[in-house]
Amino acid sequence: MTATGIITIDLEAIADNWRALAALVAPSRCGAVVKADAYGLGADRVIPALAAAGCSAFFVATPLEAASVRAMVREADIFVLDGLLAGSAGAIGAANAMPVLSSVPEVREWAEFGERRGAPQPCAVQIDSGLNRLGLSGEEARATLADARLMSRLDVRLVLSHLASADDPADPKNEQQRRAFEAMRPLLPKGVALSLAASDGLMLGKAYHYDLVRPGYALYGGQAFRGGSTPVRPVLKIEARILQVRDVAPSESVGYSATWKAARPSRIAIIAAGYADGFFRAGSNPGQNTGGIVGIGTATALVVGRVSMDLITVDVTDILPAPERGDLVTLVGPGLSIETMGHRAGTIGYEVLTSLSRRFERRYVGDLTA
Ligand SMILES: *Cc1c(COP(=O)(O)O)cnc(C)c1O
């Protein structure tokens, strides 16, 4: 009764999404990206559900995340996407995780770590194929791979690269990057596994699957891919409570800085969700396909006035039956996707997930590991 909002996360849907993607890419292996607390959904609940579904390759961003995943899964491969921070080899080694080495200094440091440990240590190597983010440049990769002494001090288990524009299957950059990755193949250690695709990349077809795919967003019900629908279903519902309903006379304003004025006698619902709950302030006031919306029963209503830290104000003048104090409205749910919520605030569904309220009550459903 004290919850201002409720976040419901369907673990069975996450497991089903993983199985659907695994089936789509078979015989390639399907991993899971669980960085940033499983995209905000709760790594401590999501990881056991994925492991129970059969996932045995987990990608995190940081050494601390690797340690927490290792505490939950004894056997699985764990890859650290941020790679090797100077001095972090011991921590990554202690988690029995593999850094994704993405620069020459990282490669050298991991080789030295192997020497100290008396044997080459398992790792992944990232080659940049055109994203210009992390990864060895083509030139650095060629020099590194040709350095037999250096390579003999590494136990490279995976070579990966990351696509820039996989959400748009028509973008020629996808094929350019795939060719650049392909061009490295003859130089790589024999039998090493390859990985190129994340959620959107795996939708580009078999040629992009290689040995291992690394979806994150799609597991959590996200659909950024613009070339058709990903075989996944939503996993998240966010509801927030109406605290008060008030009448506002024409020409009266609503909210900070009085940015919205009633053009007619209006009924405004004050809802207990603000930017501190991941309801982006950029979703203030309605515009052309912009501005926050909430679901009330089967209707949708617009946010009017500024989004504040704890509250939004929503025009419910035309909503029947009239919403009342204590009712729950839907911020994300059937007909209101994380993409819609993100796009209407000028951002993406990924940021909706990683901005979930820390003070709403969380309910996990479909936990088949319990
Ligand atoms: C975050 C990340 C992924 C997962 O991307 P999604 O779009 O969420 O599937 C895969 N690979 C790398 C290198 C990443 O940084």
Explain the overall architecture:
The protein is α/β, with parallel strands linked by helices. Helix content is about 25%, strand content about 25%. It contains eleven helices and 19 strands. The strands form four sheets. Strands 1, 11, 14, 15, 16, 17, 18 and 19 form an eight-stranded mixed sheet that branches. A seven-stranded parallel sheet has the order 3-4-5-6-7-8-9. Helix 5 (about 90-95) links the parallel strand 5 (about 75-80) and strand 6. The longest helix has 15 residues, at about 10-25. The model has no long low-confidence stretch (mean pLDDT about 95). Bound molecules: pyridoxal-5'-phosphate.
Compounds present?
A: pyridoxal-5'-phosphate
Query: pLDDT under 50 segments (min length 5)?
Result: none
User: What is the approximate shape?
Assistant: elongated
Order of helices and strands: EHEEHHEHEHEHEHHEHEEEEEEEEEEHHE
Query: Using DSSP, what is the number of strands?
Result: 19
Give the key terms.
370 residues; alpha/beta; eight-stranded mixed beta sheet; seven-stranded parallel beta sheet; 11 helices; 19 strands; binds pyridoxal-5'-phosphate
